[in-house]
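> @MW can you paste both from yesterday?
MW: sure, first one:
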Amino acid sequence: MSAPGDPPAVEASVLANLDARAREIFRRIVDSYLASGDPVGSRHLSRILPISLSPASIRNVMQDLEELGLVYAPHTSAGRLPTQQGLRFYVDALLDFGGLASEERAAEEAGFEGALTQATTLLSNLTHGAGVVVTSKDNVRLKHVEFVRLDPERALAVLVGEDGSVENRVVATPAGMPASTLAEAANYLNAHVRDRTLSEARDEIARAREASRGELDALASRLVDAGLASWAGAEEASRQLIVRGQANLIADLHAEADLERIRRLFADLETQTDVIDLLHRAENGEGVKIFIGSENKLFSLSGSSMIAAPLRGGDRRLAGVLGVIGPTRLNYGRIVPMVEYAAQVLGDLKRSR
């Protein structure tokens, strides 16, 4: 579950020396933190542990955990909270990721029949975090293409998506190109791109031109290539970020410090660039990636976490990344399978189109 580039986890040899009692105490500390955000004291632990231990014995174990860097005391005489290193160990080594409840699975399947925006909103509502998704505009299905002459050596290539989006790019044209060539190129593209994504359209046009090399004259062929190249070049820099449910992040604040953390996170989300870069890190490989706190520069000030999974469409091609952002005390055991299943459902929908 660790994300690429994460700092080294707790030494395996040290962890091997943690006996069952220490692991159970640590697990209870983390579970309580994820549920309430509050420190856990030895007296409370002595009442909830499945084994009989005195508060004094528990304090000795908690001291050992603190020396390992797994927990810390926020105040003198306070209980313990997990460190970010402790959370990483908990997620990687101790947490069991269960499946989704039947009602949660049904809610996702019903809600994800809509657009990515609706899916992101639904995931936010189910997890009580901020839902995020990044996708390339290459995934928009195309509706219409047009070429408009600007001057004797330039034309405006206009691409209209089924979602109403419009992409305009200026392309060079051979001097003296007649208006009929612009119309021929547009007609040819419209016959092959409708209801397809840009990548699908490029593949279809390549197949069509291979099958019938004489279908376009030389000038129209050059214009088609110029239009496709301009849109393809633009898609690399046109990653679309959707964020929904930011209000969920301020619904459970415990202190003024929490408010400052959320303010910093909102500022990060508004810049978008770092969020997109972080989501790109989740594109590699399969399955869910978990980013905790200062493991990534984006969250070094806000102390937040993100759970993300890649979206894959037809031919297992990468179509984007879906995730949830929240405090480090996210309910990882519940949210990880939600994100994983959401990515699977959206990928299946894309492959079925």
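MW: second:
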Amino acid sequence: MPPFHELDKLCVRIDKVAYLPELEAPRDRPYPYVYFITIENHTNETITIKGRKWVVTDEKGNRTVVEGDGVVGKFPKLKPGASFSYNSYHAVGCDSVAEGAFIGVNEAGEAVIARIPPFAMKVPR
């Protein structure tokens, strides 16, 4: 089993982070990054992802909090052993680190939290 797995947990893996200057970005945050993420269900229960919370902290200490329902407009229902992969993007103005959590529920309606490991978005020099 790969080293990122935690048995009996809902796990998040950052597959790739890439700077893509050709993407649209606002003037105050001109550096767009695409990130590829996989959510894996290592529990013995079906879990539906209901929302997410991201915190992006830049090198100056400024924080941006992003919360919302689902994941990229979907509410993935992950059976035991299943995974869901997606990509999205975020634009930054200086070196930044993103982290957060996905919030899911099991079939009994109990909350299940999966931490999103921190990943860096370093501005090209």
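> thanks! The chain has one domain: 10-121.
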